[in-house]
Amino acid sequence: MTTFAGWLLIFGFTALVALLAKPFGLWLHAVYEGRRTVLHPVLGPLEHGFYRLSGVDPQREQGWRAYALHLLAFQVVTALFTYAVLRLQGVLPLNPRALPGLGADGAFNTAIAFVTNTNWQWYSGEAALSNLSQMLGLTIHNFLSAATGIAVAFALFRGFARTETRTVGNFWADLVRVTLYILLPACILYAVFLIASGVPQTLASTVDAATLEGARQTIVVGPVASQEAIKMLGTNGGGFFNANSAHPFENPSALTNLVQMLSIFVLGAGLTWCFGKAVGNTRQGWAVLAAMLALFLAGASIAYWQEAVGGPVLHHLGVAGANMEGKEVRFGIAASALFAAVTTAASCGAVNAMHDSFTALGGLVPLFNIQLGEIVIGGVGSGIYGFLLFALLAVFIAGLMVGRTPEYVGKKIEAREVKLAVLAIAVLPLCILGFTAIAAVLPAGLAGPLNKGPHGFSEILYAFTSATGNNGSAFAGLSAGTPFYNGLLGAAMWLGRFFVIVPVLAIAGSLAAKKHTPASAGSFPTTGPLWIALLIGTILLVGGLTFLPSLALGPVADHVTGLAGTTY
Q1: CA distance 223 to 126
Q2: Which of 96, 98, 207, 361 has its CA 20 to 30 A from that of 88?
Q3: Residue 466 domain-assigned?
Q4: Is the pLDDT of residue 311 over 90?
Q5: How many other C-beta atoms lie within 10 A of the C-beta of residue 16?
Q6: Is residue 84 part of a domain?
Q7: Which 3 state secondary structure label does DSSP give 173?
Q8: pLDDT tens across 472-493, in order?
Q9: Neighbour-count burial for 540-555, b at 16+ CB within 10 Å, e otherwise
Q10: Alpha-carbon distance values, 27 to 4, 71, 180, 538 (Å)
Q11: Domain housing 106
Q12: φ, ψ for residue 353 (rounded to 5)?
């Protein structure tokens, strides 16, 4: 059964996120505006050195097309670089265990996964990748993919904030400043905390230990703390170890578990306040955060309740009690359910429990969180710009219903913005449902799930939901390291990231060219409880009901058959 301590953890965590939104929002807004900070005396010369080496003029702003073109070119080049590192791993240095390079399909999938901020891992990190591949091939993308997401959010903020201009910023300046002044210093402090908490940080490969029985055990170590810090803050999620945040070397204690969950959310929450400040009305940012946290609390509560009461099959057999299968006993039910809700509300994908072992309805929560579009806090940058797509739809729908002018934060929302928003939102169901349908009928796809029936279908559905939503977590019951799944999931990750980013930048350019329209009696209010309720309703109706048939075939059918005592 649920406990008071469990509910206190969930509601206390949510309150902490709300309290941290403004401090982190102030920091993000300073970088958004390009203002001088306390870090500039140390990092300023490094920033200008990057510009001189690359020939970039940070004062030269770009229109949305140039911004998008430079962003895409950068992603292609870095993806090719990572692919080469992974393929050549066997002949590169810092490979003390002499691990061979990855195969072509595996390297392709992994390179795309880390470029797109997904960090989908079909392999076991400690058994497949060298220290160089972990640091140079993967960790570097944890910084760059996170910085790219925040840069796109900044461009969209400028679209709302600016008037009658064709520019939305400079991609290279945004990328460098976010990396240097936000992600790098935060990760250094975070990594020091993790090292002090017992997380390894070394270039050594293994250590030997004697067990209580006197046997000799070889334990893999490496530069874990540095990867762990940006894994969480950048909502990347790729673990150094296969067990991810259930591994004691990645997540040693209840304190680190709490800090990891907070670090997944703080930058995304801060960006909501930064948005309100950028458009000159912080109440707009608080309204966005309130809608996000309401959706998050609902999901976390359902997951905790379901895991605490246990699965229907055990009930059918007369066994009552919480579902501890797949849970890390150090953290228990409440912390595991909360972590699952946090990591899938954000596009992080780190796990401290195996989602495949959740009850049917408990496992539905992380799946549904991703299907909403990864906008409940969401990934760094991608969460807020994805949420604002729904805000544009909501204000347009509200205007049609009550006969008021569709306006949002001083900009008229017209057919072009609505079409682009619908185009971006439609990418998720198109890829998730389309690719799931392919995998559910082809022999190569059906060879993947370890379970039969609706739970096996859920494993396939979750994989393509996670990939397209750029989350990276898995039900862990799918054998996805095959050419079929590596190729198809790689395509889903690329489409789910960049076929959303380009329409978002187009919306930013369109809004920046518009005049600012002061609020009037004919404007629909976008800061109060009614607006928050409309936002939540739009997200659930547009983003959620699209997937209802697939959820009925997967988790819901799994639950119903479990009530009858059926297992697969």
Answers
A1: 11
A2: 207
A3: no
A4: no
A5: 16
A6: yes
A7: helix
A8: 998 878 888 899 999 999 999 9
A9: eebbbebbeebbebbb
A10: 35, 24, 13, 31
A11: 22-205+217-278
A12: -150, 155
Average pLDDT over residues 165-175: 96
**What's the CA gap between 52 and 56, in Å, rounded?**
7
Does some domain include residue 122? yes
What's residue 319's pLDDT? 62
Count of the separate structural domains present in the chain: 1
* CB of 423 closer than 8 Å to CB of 506: no
pLDDT at 315: 65
Place of tokens 């072009």: 416
pLDDT of residue 416: 95
* pLDDT band per the 50, 70, 90 thresholds, residue 71: very high
Token output for 396: 């347009």
Nearest to 383 by CA among 393, 372, 394: 372
Average pLDDT rounded to a whole number, residues 44-62: 94
Beta strands 206-210 and 407-408: pairing type? Answer: unpaired
Interatomic CA distance for residues 509 and 513, integer angstroms:
6
Closest to 484 measured CA to CA, from 438, 425, 453: 438
Distances 456 to 235, 436, 463 between C-alpha atoms, Å: 27, 12, 11
**CA 314 to CA 321: how far, in whole Å?**
8
Tens-digit pLDDT profile for residues 223-267: 899 999 999 999 998 888 888 999 999 999 999 999 999 999 999
Contacts of 529 (CB under 8 A, 6+ apart): none
pLDDT at residue 566, as a whole number: 76
Strand partners for 408? 411
